Amino acid sequence: MGCSGCSNGKTDSGLPRGCKNNGSCQTGGCDKLSVFNYLSNMEDTVGYTVNDFVEVRFKNTRKQFFKQEELNLTQGDVVAVEASPGHDVGTVSLVGDLVMLQMRKRKVDSATADLKKIYRKATETDISTWQEAVALENQTKTRARIIARELGLNMKISDVEYQGDKSKAIFYYTAEDRVDFRELIRKYAEEFKVRVEMKQIGSRQEAARLGGIGPCGRELCCSTWLNDFRTVSTSAARYQQLSLNPQKLAGQCGKLKCCLNYELDSYLDALKEFPSLKAKLELKDGTAFPQKVDIFKGVMWYTTKSDPTKFVEVPVERVNEIIGLNKAGKKPAVLVEHEYAPVEVKHDYENVVGQDDLTRFDRPKQSGGRSGNKRRKGGNRNKNRNRNRNKGNKPNNAN
């Protein structure tokens, strides 16, 4: 989601205004995990008004709660906060009563938690130092990957985040096994002249930090709004009658897509009315076998041994009825009293010029046009010959 400054012309470097600000734009539209304070116009939402705590967002998806003392901060303010060591610079992402609700959701006790303080609103010096630190992150990440490769470590440096005062850098990495990076830290400290902190993250957290576009055409959920990574199993795909194709079910992180859980509850509720998807039906003339299911239409398709190529559409109520009859020792004569005929779809428009015919380019060309052209070309040659003959046989009027 772009901020309003992105459409107000371009900078001297040719980039749209509002980009490359790393969250310092005042609208907050370019932030990852941006929050809309839906309680801003409401009063007495939690029993009392709280202005002592705010939520501050740093690079990408890192957020923390801080204490404030009579600073009257608003959403979008750039602030200098307490860090270890020195200070860090971030953007206020949430203020007011909604902060308390978020703290309760994350089980952070405001009375006993050791929350750090906000020093002040960021000055021009703080912001300039912060922007210099941000400019160093890409080249630091490239050099850090080279050093890790030279040491032969089985790890991947995913991202680098500098502290606002350039005194510390956090190196985010992913690794399948335990990594001994004591020598790596020493190399980093000598190379970059900063305090080094190594932080291991999972593949989902890596995708959330880096971002990207999903197969749906929108930004990844984990980098825009999703912060609760729940376990996704292959049973979620089976319940939704999806093909178990790893290439289609896996997301950018290499794990199963989080969106497989979004509609899972609706499918589970609909499946409560269905019998076992492997339930066979006993008829007088044989056994009917299930082939496929349409959950939301409430129908199942069966085939028989006598005609295995013919799919019979059976409502789920009729299937449960036949199962009840089979348990009672009875076998019905047919699956359904009458088979459902396919509904003919009538279009409310007419094909006037034939442009909606997808096979119009596959039709062979007619040969009449070519022969006609040949005849016309031959006729033109004969006319030219006769014209030349007439020119050569002109009478001599000079005598």
Q: What would a concise description of this structure say?
A:
The protein is α+β, with helices and mostly antiparallel strands and 399 residues long. The chain has helices at residues 97-105, 124-135, 137-150, 182-192, 203-210, 221-224, 234-239, 246-249, 264-271, 316-327, 368-392, and strands at residues 53-57, 63-67, 78-82, 87-94, 116-121, 156-162, 168-174, 195-200, 281-283, 286-294, 299-304, 312-315.
How is this structure best described in words?
This protein is α+β, with helices and mostly antiparallel strands and 399 residues long. Among the domains are: 31-120, no CATH class; 132-206, GMP Synthetase, Chain A, domain 3 (2-Layer Sandwich), CATH 3.30.300.20; 274-341, no CATH class. Helices cover 28% and strands 18% of the residues. The strands form three sheets. It has a five-stranded mixed barrel with strand order 1-2-5-3-4. Helix 3 crosses helix 4. The protein starts with 52 loop residues before the first strand and ends in a 7-residue tail after the last helix.
